[in-house]
Specification:
By secondary structure, the protein is an alpha/beta fold. 36% of the residues lie in helices and 18% in strands. It contains 16 helices and 18 strands. Helix 1 (33-46) crosses helix 2 (54-61), helix 1 packs across helix 3 (66-78) and helix 1 (33-46) crosses helix 4 (95-101). The longest helix is centred in the C-terminal third of the chain and has 15 residues, at 310-324.
């Protein structure tokens, strides 16, 4: 991801002592299993963007027994406070776990260090941010801060942002995490003005009523409108946005008696653009409306932290380099790599590799299978049913 540039749960009781966790006692650091549980929970919260092995956690918190740490981790997973990955056993905190950890007595710094600033101070990585579908978004660096924070700051200053990059890199996820009041128009070549402004809908008993569209709702309620895949929308349709984005801050609805709608404070427009998608055209008229053009690429470090094997990430990096050079027409992004982890956890590594090859477009499948085979040392074919 580049920096901006001008256009072009509730608290839970401590669990019962686990085997090997020590004899219950009072006082922090006494060996009480509840204290160990707190240390484990707080450590996971401090590293919310990572999937950690039991041994890594044991060493980091100075616990005498990895078995006791493992028991605490399993209790967290059973409570829904952590996800448990197997082969090998690894754990990552959930949003419910983050909420619960926030109510625990402090046992460690609450945020993870992400390096030292120029003045020697420590900078903190924010906790993952929940999206409307319940999944977590892991903020990334942007300028002098983090992307979610910076997007909110740009909204406050009314600086419009165009996000561009391949599908699956996290553009929509970032905007959903930044703006809980988000409304979305998913652009296609068939999007029409009514999809923004509204239209007449039939009502029970006969007749019609006018239902205002998401652009009007966002303007009146001071909400954020994401125009996703904006460059697939015909330019003459996109022109409906421009009066709302410039100094006028108004739109007119011809179909509803030329009703005029004025934007209130908080209204903001973000757009998404997938340059390599067939039919996507970024016109000068659209580009000039956005002060910040932000390139969103896949976060390879995050992919590794979320459990994607290093050889698979390496293959994806090579394929993306080939994609940029015009040597292939498709490369897996973060969405596909997280799907790989899900399939691996359910069906095994071989099936996950085969599925990653199988989801590639037909004209890129040979490239994908070759890259995966080269980096994993495993012959790979697209996922298919075997013999009975």
């Amino acid at each position: 991801m580049t920096t901006p540039h001008p256009p072009a749960v509730s608290p839970q009781n401590d669990p019962a002592p686990a085997s090997g966790a020590g004899t219950p006692a009072t006082g922090a650091g006494s060996g009480r299993s509840g204290y160990l549980y707190r240390k484990v929970a707080l450590h996971l919260a401090d590293h919310a963007d990572q999937v950690l092995k039991v041994g890594e956690i044991t060493r980091a918190i100075g616990a005498p027994s990895s078995g006791a740490v493992f028991e605490a981790l399993k209790k967290m997973a059973a409570a829904g406070h952590a996800t448990h990955h197997r082969d090998p056993h690894r754990f990552q905190i959930t949003q419910a776990g983050i909420d619960a950890a926030g109510a625990l007595p402090p046992a460690a710094p609450r945020t993870r260090s992400s390096g030292s600033s120029g003045g020697g101070g420590r900078q903190s990585r924010p906790a993952p941010v929940p999206r409307p579908n319940g999944t977590l978004y892991h903020p990334r660096r942007l300028g002098r801060g983090w992307d979610v924070e910076e997007l909110r700051r740009l909204r406050a200053q009314q600086v419009p942002v165009l996000l561009y990059g391949p599908p699956g890199t996290g553009k929509t996820a970032m905007v959903e995490a930044a703006f809980p009041d988000l409304l979305t128009v998913a652009g296609t070549g068939d999007t029409v003005v009514d999809d923004f402004l509204g239209s007449y809908n039939p009502v029970p008993g006969g007749g019609y009523e006018f239902v205002h569209g998401p652009l009007v709702t966002a303007m009146r309620q001071g909400r954020v409108l994401l125009v996703d895949d904006a460059t697939l929308i015909p330019p003459r349709v996109l022109a409906v946005l421009y009066p709302a984005m410039d100094g006028r801050g108004t739109v007119t609805i011809p179909a509803h008696g030329n009703e005029t709608v004025e934007a209130v404070d908080g209204f903001y427009i973000v757009a998404g653009h997938n340059p390599g998608v067939h039919g996507a055209v970024l016109t000068e008229a659209l580009a000039s409306r956005f002060t910040v053009h932000l390139h969103v690429t896949t976060d390879w470090d995050l992919a590794r932290q979320l459990g994607v094997p290093k050889p698979v990430v390496a293959a994806a990096i090579d394929l993306n380099a080939d994609l940029a050079a015009g040597k292939t027409v498709w490369a897996p992004q973060l969405r596909e790599l997280l799907g790989f982890v899900t399939v691996r956890d359910q069906l095994g590594m071989s099936a996950a590799l085969a599925n990653l090859a199988g989801i590639a477009p037909q004209d890129a499948r040979d490239d994908v299978t070759a890259a995966l085979s080269r980096h994993t040392g495993t012959p790979i074919t697209a996922l298919a049913l075997g013999k009975r």
